[in-house]
Design goal:
By secondary structure, the protein is of the alpha/beta class. Helices cover 46% and strands 12% of the residues. The protein has two domains: 8-146, NAD(P)-binding Rossmann-like Domain (Rossmann fold); 157-193, no CATH class. The protein has a five-stranded parallel β-sheet with strand order 3-2-1-4-5, sandwiched between helices. 34% of the residues are buried. The protein binds nicotinamide-adenine-dinucleotide.
C-alpha cells in the first residue's frame, strides 16, 4: 500500500478479527486509526497492539454501536477532534450473523442483522461522507460477506426452497422462465403447478 502515511482512517469492528488486522495494517502504513467497536475492551487491545507494533501511528479507541446513528456521529466527532483532521478513509467492517434455517429465524434476528450489516454502514458512511464531500476527498471501503449476496448457510435460496417444498410453499419471484429453469436445475417440481407466490428470490 502506498501513499497512506499521514492519512486518517476509521475501521469499524476493529476490536477483533478482520477489522483488527485491517487496523494494524493501516497503522503500519502510518495511518492514524480510529478503532471503532461496540466492544470497548477489544478496541483497547487493538490500540495496544498498534502502539506496540509502531509507535508512530496513533490509534483512537472509540466505543461505538454502529446501529445507533447518534452514537456514530458523536464517535466520529470525537475521533476527528482527537486527530485534528477529517476522516480520509472509512472501512465498514463490523458485521454480524448466525447461520440458521430461515424458518427458525424471528423478527428480532432480522432486525439485528439489518441493524448491524445494513444500517451500521449507512450510519457510518453518512457521518463521514459530509466531511469527505466538503474536502472533495475520501474513500469508503465496505467489507461484506458472500452471505449478503447468496444468503447464509441454511438460509440460501436453494435451502429455503427445499424447506418450502417440505412446507408446501415455494420461493422465487424472478421471471417465470428463469424460475422454471432454476427449479429444473435443482430437480424441484415446476413452479407453475403449485403456489409459487413466495417473495424471496433464489440467488445463485
Ligand atoms: N470471518 C469470515 O470468514 C468472514 C467471511 C466473509 C466476510 N466476513 C466479514 O468480515 C467482517 C468481519 O468479520 P470477522 O470474522 O472479523 O468478525 P468478528 O465477529 O471477529 O468481528 C466483528 C467485530 O464487529 C464488532 N461489532 C459487532 N456489532 C457491532 C456494532 N453494533 N457496532 C460496532 N461494532 C460491532 C464486534 O464487537 C467485533 O469486534 C464482517 O463484516 C463479516 O461479515 C467475514
Amino acid at each position: 500500500m502506498r501513499g497512506l502515511k499521514g492519512k486518517t482512517a476509521i475501521v469499524t469492528g476493529a476490536g477483533s478479527g478482520i477489522g483488527r488486522a485491517i487496523a494494524l495494517r493501516l497503522a503500519a502504513e502510518g495511518v492514524t486509526v480510529g478503532v471503532f467497536d461496540i466492544n470497548e475492551a477489544g478496541a483497547g487491545e487493538t490500540v495496544k497492539a498498534i502502539e506496540a507494533a509502531d509507535g508512530k501511528a496513533v490509534a483512537v479507541a472509540v466505543a461505538c454501536d454502529i446501529t445507533d446513528y447518534g452514537a456514530v456521529t458523536a464517535a466520529v466527532k470525537r475521533f476527528e477532534e482527537t486527530t485534528g483532521a477529517g476522516t480520509d478513509i472509512l472501512v465498514n467492517n463490523a458485521g454480524w450473523d448466525t447461520p440458521m434455517p430461515f424458518l427458525k429465524t424471528e423478527e428480532a434476528f432480522w432486525k439485528k442483522v439489518t441493524a448491524i450489516n445494513w444500517f451500521g454502514p449507512l450510519h457510518m458512511t453518512h457521518a463521514v461522507a459530509q466531511g469527505m464531500a466538503a474536502r472533495k476527498s475520501g474513500r469508503v471501503v465496505n467489507i461484506a460477506s458472500d452471505a449478503g449476496r447468496v444468503g447464509s448457510t441454511h438460509r440460501r435460496g436453494r435451502v429455503l426452497g427445499l424447506q418450502g417444498r417440505d412446507h408446501r410453499f415455494r420461493e422465487g419471484a424472478g421471471a417465470r422462465g428463469g424460475a422454471q429453469q432454476r427449479h429444473r436445475e435443482h430437480r424441484l417440481p415446476r413452479p407453475d403447478r403449485h403456489a409459487g407466490h413466495g417473495c424471496l428470490r433464489r440467488h445463485r
